[in-house]
Records
---
Amino acid sequence: MLVVTAGGACEKSPDRSESMPEPAAAVAATTSSPGASSAAATASEAAAYTMSASPAQSRPDYERARWDPIHFKPAIDEAADEDCLRCHHEILDRRPLERSPAGIQAATSLAWYQQLTTYAGPQETFHRRHLVTPLATRLMSLRCNTCHQGSSPREEAPIPPVSGRADFALRKTVDPETTCLKCHGQLNYQLMGLPGPWPDVRETMGNNCLLCHAGIRTNRHRVTYLKAEAIDEAGKESSDVCFGCHGGRSWYRISYPYPRHAWPGMPEVVPDWAKGRPAESEARFVRQ
Ligand code: HEC
Ligand code: HEC
Ligand code: HEC
Ligand code: HEC
Ligand code: HEC
């Protein structure tokens, strides 16, 4: 069932099978007026909370919220982060456990990529690492709908595949190939003509991507979810910043086929690998 908390955030209770609010809570929600006694505070918050699906309906309803048109095309394309966070504030509030149930401390069990100089502060959730932590806000401006392109709450893939209580996946419609892979693929060193993988050859290049990229493929990062100037500044301080998104945190064994923007002094002959590559970023991200 849906629990409406201060600020109108929706949280789901552990029991997924119940879908309607408690009758008492629903009545309170429609009758109490804002600013009443503190005991009625939660109910008045609920009364103030209206569905974008149909403004006439003021009663909070789990199914209505779940099927709110904002989750789908075309509304999701226009959604601001605040619109999503109105119901999903847990996305920014949640923190990893400080200690696992078996007693392992988060602070002392860091993965290799959490020990890099660019990793600031304690362990954080996936969402916070892309939206609010220092490196994320310095280099990127990712938004909910950069990744979320329409969620179907239909129960598509129960895990485990049983008919009883189960968790569900594949209903968030985040396409890793057009999101994650752009920043978490391999460095395509063969294409660049480098003699080997970056960690093996970087010393000979002064650990400096800009040795070449001050002059090659200079028209880059002009997309809404990246801060192009800040990235070039940070890249001058350390190429680990560049490598971080171009091979350093590669969760994939393949590289992303980047669009090939024309740059001043670009050779006229198009190399074979680049034939068929787009010359512009994905339209929905192009920065004007
Ligand atoms: C009116 C409240 C409301 C708004 C606004 C809203 N959501 Fe939801 N959303 C829900 C509810 C309720 C569910 C169902 C949760 C469940 O069953 O686990 C849900 C489900 C989801 C899921 C699937 C969760 C899962 O565990 O499968 C995603 C992803 C999601 N919303 C993202 C978004 C994004 C992105 C936006 C903004 C574009 C947004 N939501 C706006 C209420 C809302
Ligand atoms: C970098 C891409 C990315 C961004 C940006 C992003 N999400 Fe997600 N989100 C994902 C992925 C991938 C999952 C699936 C995670 C999983 O299966 O556990 C997910 C899962 C979710 C879920 C359901 C599972 C959960 O963790 O509760 C909700 C709700 C959600 N996102 C809402 C949001 C909202 C709201 C925003 C903006 C404030 C946002 N997301 C920004 C990629 C993203
Ligand atoms: C625009 C670039 C970009 C995109 C797109 C992106 N990431 Fe990231 N990701 C980063 C950066 C930068 C970091 C490092 C953050 C830090 O160290 O503070 C990171 C860190 C991570 C981490 C480590 C988090 C931690 O705290 O240990 C995971 C896991 C991850 N990303 C998964 C994903 C997934 C899955 C997607 C697609 C849904 C995705 N990323 C999309 C740039 C991106
Ligand atoms: C020795 C010169 C050199 C160095 C050093 C170098 N690159 Fe490149 N890079 C190239 C060349 C050449 C290309 C292909 C240019 C073209 O499009 O014809 C390229 C292309 C790229 C591309 C686009 C790949 C694609 O699929 O279109 C990315 C991303 C990239 N480099 C990132 C980096 C990063 C990050 C570093 C440092 C870790 C780096 N490069 C270091 C020469 C270099
Ligand atoms: C926060 C993650 C991130 C960082 C840091 C980053 N890049 Fe990128 N880079 C991307 C993404 C995402 C794209 C693809 C953007 C698009 O679709 O146009 C890209 C594209 C490129 C391209 C292809 C250019 C073209 O023709 O469009 C080159 C070359 C490149 N980056 C080099 C670098 C160099 C050099 C640095 C360091 C100064 C760097 N990147 C730092 C995420 C990053």
Note: The first helix runs from residue 23 to 31.
---
Amino acid sequence: MSRTHSVIPIVPATRLSGIEASSNIQPRAVSGVFATWRWAMVWATQLWFYGMPWLNWHGRQAVLFDLEGRRFYIFGTVLFPQDLILLTGVLVFSALLLFAATALYGRVWCGFACPQTVYTEIFSWVEHRAEGDRLARMRLDDAPWSIQKFARRGTKHLAWVTIALLTGFSLVGWFTPVRALAASVPAVAFGPWEGFWILFYAAATYLHAGVLKEKICQHACPYGRFQGSMLDAASRVITYDVARGEPRGSRTRGSDARSIGQGDCVDCTLCVQVCPVGIDIRNGLQAECISCGLCIDACNGVMDKMKAPRGLISFRALSGIGERPAHRRGRVLAYGAGLALVGVGVMVAFLARPELRLNVIRDRSVMSRQLPDGGIENVYRLRVMNASLVPRRLDVHAFVEGIDGTRLLAEQSAVVVVEPAGTSNSVVSLRMDATNAQRYASLVAVPIRVEVIGSSGSSGDKATSASTFIAR
Ligand code: SF4
Ligand code: SF4
């Protein structure tokens, strides 16, 4: 096992001997505070993942990442490819949040919110229903093939495939209108790329959550490898209280462990049996530990039965009492400052994002044209983007940049109409009268400002862009 650098020791993974050492870990079901939190996260994340594509907002899908149309719809907001910097900011913010959470509370992301954890929890629940609890599953593993084994395994895999396909469908529903996609399913009339991604993501879900499970956390996840570098003695991690628990050994309920020269651990191994990655936390923090807290739930149940205080395994800072509070540590403050900076930056950039954008390019094929009255005409290509969900009808105006603001005349038809979340490309002629043409004739290129403006005339209903005018 590779080690990660840390100021706290991370020991190699240790498991029980015999059947527990089987490559197929069969965790035991457990109830308690952490198990409840894990299921709360499963519900919260899955309601969001499966439900969000079905939510409508002002008559259209509330959240749709339309890659083909190169538009992202997020409720009333439309994002163009030019806005991807916002997405970068959100990703940086998320990474900093993960680092801060790890520095404070260890690998809580892995234990409660990581998709690998969440789907493994769902698939394990199905497995539990189809094949029974831990011992029944272990017996089924060892049993020869029979009708009963075939039926139980078949039921489980059928349910897994169904969930995996539903997951693949829901993922694609974030990127293509989900109602149309659903309507195309019965006749298998969806497009090839949609079909590919539904099957690909379904296969990935089935493989990761059903077949590989904890092996992904143990061997494939890079975060588990470098988590140690983000921890220090004040980080809260899952900890077995060695001083209180050792020497371990069985004893009768309610007996005083100290009076018989023992610690509080009765060596029942329940903490190992419930562990989804199959490790023995009593041997110290291990890189495989995903901080799910299920061993705490199991051990607290045992301590209740033994009439001993809870907390033999707990979620706490290794430094114990007397150290500086975790939230005051330098690295946490640095992460906090980074979060505030990036968060404010993304928010300001989002709020300042214009709904109308104008790009003006002078037609290079016709430099300029002299009109019969002595005026000069230049031709421009206007590209207007409407990042809102309302149609826009915009008038085109143009001025010479500078103090006097000489006005250029746009041709009569210089009105641009842009659909909601649409882009309009048009060709517009701008004219300078004979007097001004003579006035600016000495300049190689006259700097101008082109403006498109809606009927309201408000700043949100207007866009400008700079260009040049050839006046000779
Ligand atoms: S040791 Fe405890 S917290 Fe860590 S993965 Fe196993 S059950 Fe979860
Ligand atoms: S559940 Fe508690 S008492 Fe049982 S083996 Fe684990 S640490 Fe010891």
Note: The pocket of iron/sulfur cluster (ligand 1) is lined by residues 238, 274-277, 279, 281, 289-295 (CB under 6 Å).
